């Protein structure tokens, strides 16, 4: 698929991009589905290609080395992290300290949530892009001005600096809060390591990015088996906002694909590996030293897939641009500054013009 064919950021012509008329899972369960319902059929907008090469070159970062007391081991890990952020923009994280029991509990309760009757979940239908809890389907528009719905049921919740979570099933809220807190500590350490590699003072980075009040959002995406997976998408090509998105998947079901040097590759993490996507704001803050990962999600005919992503950014009201010491060192900023909250909201309110928001923030001299 061409990068400009579809954008999840292109919903300006909707009253709001979210809806919950009927979950994808309930459609699959209600009949012996042989063909894709027309509202999910992206091919009506001109077709698309979801082919990707298998890949064994995605970098692997050992988080325990980043926190090691051995200076040589830690220095090597910091350099490897910086290299992964500069080249691929996506990597696997091992020895991350996120307990397997906690991750398993999170997946079990999220599966229970997506098994709730539609009427129970409909109360969280998004009323606006800033709703603290949003559940439902997502509409996108193609460049030929046709709309379709992603083959995905989703739940998005804001978990920091204010915590929100659905009340059902119990104890989902307690599990999410503990998981989000642990992820936040992992991300803060990685941001600090990248800052160190760029020779930025950690206290400066903590203060200017307001990391103590960092914005964090958890998103769970459920992709039921699809009768015609080559005609639709789970998520269109996009970049994530923020610094790092920590993605957990289980059961070895493929779906995530990343673009590297113009070629699409499958990203299939081994067991106990987290996937980490570099976000747009790390690219901006680093003045281009780090590269945000451009990725998409495809679906399959045989197996359902559940993925849980936690996006992590600066404080919601931070006006984020390239770090001042890097601008001074480079002689110029390569990106414009923008309020982080406004940046996130513009994902859903801007008119689609064939460019990502990140492209629009780049300064061309």
TrEMBL record:
* GO MF annotations in UniProt: 2-oxoglutarate-dependent dioxygenase activity; metal ion binding
Q: Which stretches make up the Fe2OG dioxygenase domain? A: 213-314
Q: Which UniProt keywords apply?
A: Iron, Metal-binding, Oxidoreductase
Asked whether the keyword Kinase is assigned, the reply is no
Q: Which ranges does the record mark as transmembrane?
A: none
Could you name the domain of life of the organism this protein comes from?
A: Eukaryota
GO BP terms: namely: coumarin biosynthetic process; response to molecule of fungal origin
- What sections of the sequence does the record tag as coiled-coil? none
Q: Which family does it belong to?
A: Belongs to the iron/ascorbate-dependent oxidoreductase family.
Report the protein name in the record.
Answer: 2-oxoglutarate-dependent dioxygenase 19-like
Species of origin:
Salvia divinorum
- Lineage of producing organism: Eukaryota, Viridiplantae, Streptophyta, Embryophyta, Tracheophyta
């Amino acid at each position: 698929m061409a990068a400009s064919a579809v954008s999840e950021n292109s919903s300006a012509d909707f009253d709001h991009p979210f809806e919950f008329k009927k979950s994808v899972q309930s459609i699959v369960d209600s009949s012996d589905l042989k063909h894709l319902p027309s509202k999910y059929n992206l091919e009506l907008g001109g077709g698309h290609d979801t082919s990707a090469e298998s890949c064994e070159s995605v970098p692997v970062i050992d988080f325990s080395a980043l926190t090691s007391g051995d200076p040589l081991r830690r220095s090597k890990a910091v350099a490897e992290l910086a290299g992964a952020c500069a080249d691929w923009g996506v990597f696997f994280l091992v020895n991350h300290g996120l307990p397997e029991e906690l991750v398993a509990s999170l997946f079990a309760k999220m599966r229970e949530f997506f098994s709730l009757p539609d009427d129970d979940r409909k109360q969280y239908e998004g009323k606006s892009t800033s709703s603290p809890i949003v559940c439902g389907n997502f509409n996108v528009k193609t460049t030929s001005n046709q709309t379709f719905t992603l083959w995905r049921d989703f739940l998005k919740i804001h978990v920091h600096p204010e915590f929100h979570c659905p009340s059902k099933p119990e104890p989902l809220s307690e599990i999410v809060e503990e998981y989000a807190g642990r992820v936040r500590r992992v991300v803060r350490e990685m941001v600090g390591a990248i800052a160190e590699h760029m020779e930025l003072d950690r206290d400066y980075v903590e203060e200017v990015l307001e990391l103590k009040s960092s914005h964090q959002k958890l998103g769970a995406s459920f992709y039921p088996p699809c009768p015609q997976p080559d005609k639709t998408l789970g998520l269109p090509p996009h970049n994530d906002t923020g610094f790092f998105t920590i993605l957990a998947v289980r059961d070895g079901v493929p779906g995530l694909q990343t673009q590297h040097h113009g070629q699409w590759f499958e990203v299939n993490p081994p067991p106990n590996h987290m996937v980490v996507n570099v976000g747009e704001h790390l690219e901006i803050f680093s003045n281009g030293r780090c590269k945000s990962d451009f990725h998409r999600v495809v679906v399959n005919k045989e197996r359902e897939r559940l993925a849980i992503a936690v996006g992590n950014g600066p404080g919601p009201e931070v006006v984020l641009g390239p770090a001042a010491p890097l601008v001074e060192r480079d002689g110029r900023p390569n990106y414009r500054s923008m309020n982080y909250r406004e940046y996130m909201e513009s994902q859903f309110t801007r008119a689609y013009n064939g460019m990502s928001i990140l492209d629009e923030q780049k300064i061309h001299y």
